[in-house]
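debug: dumping io for the single-chain case to check the tokenizer round-trip. Nothing else runs in this session.
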Amino acid sequence: MKSEYIQISRILKNYDLCEYCVGRLVSKLVGKSSSKLVGKKYLKKFDKPSSTKCYVCKNIFENLDSMLSNIFEKSYNLDFKTFNLGLILKNSFLERDDLIKSKFKLKGIENIKFAISSEMAKKISRRTKSKRIMNDPELFIQVNFKDESSTIRTKPIFVYGRYNKKIRKIRQKQMSCKSCNGIGCHNCNFKGLENIESIESKISNLLIKKFEGNQVKINWIGGEDQSSLVLGNGRPFFAKILNPKKRNKILRKSSNLEGVSLSELRKILVQPKGSISFKSKVSIIVDTEKPILLTHLKKLDVLENVKIYDPSKDKKNLNKQIYQIRYKKLAKTSFRLDLLADGGIPIKFFIQNSDVTPNVSELLQNSCHCRKIDFKNIIV
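debug: decoded output
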């Protein structure tokens, strides 16, 4: 132990250090965990004052309260049980720390950045009754000691649900804000969207109000025209709520949003990655250029269990299938077509003359176009 005492004496003779840095730098030499109490003990033992400005940290440990106050002020109204902390520190702190460790051959000691982070995390944990974790925390705090600022962000909340569209002339997707291109700015109240009525805006407004988030990103399972209805059990969607303040709010399973009703709403841990396969039951009103007969419509029977080829899609989505087909003549130049088909088939192009093959116009040898497309059911 005598050699360790000599080593500590040499360190303290050459450098003015605070209790925190002494405790950290001598911890391995004395076989103790790094702590302020260890540092205080050895400063007293070697009759060194603790009020002198620390060579390594410039007494940063004594000035953490102002930074912590800023963090507590920003996070006081947030729901979180776990957090993590990141630091931005001037390189000079690490350089001075490394100089002493190198000069006195001190190995296996936590660096100054880790020590500051640990001390701050202890204080945050005690004050907020939360736990620091490294992976996937509910709150992440970034502390910048270069400009004495702090930023916080919360873990996104993911929601699954389905929507039914009961009235026409409501678009599915909202237009991105022209000022920020969907990022979020003052003009769009940081939602990233133009103030236009849509299913997306209705869902986003509900979730932002509920969880006090900044923005909502929606992953749609298929889509429909502005004039289409979505009936049956509804179209599934996944929503990602960015930077929510409230995590513990109860989400009701259903909600009525004036022409759009939501069902099966629930929070989920994470939304699925990649595309999700689904089938749609679709009812289409088709108008024809020339009069149509029932005998003509029977030509459409060949479409059952047939693959639909769309050259505009990538190779993974080249072939989509129609599983069932039903038709009914409505008038001299119109008929209804009911399909059970894979999601992703471009219905309008499948009906009219196009590169999608086969298509209804070619089979009937009669120019067709969609007057109305309604979704009776979505099957995932």
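debug: round-trip ok. The chain has three domains: 2-154, 157-268, 279-379.
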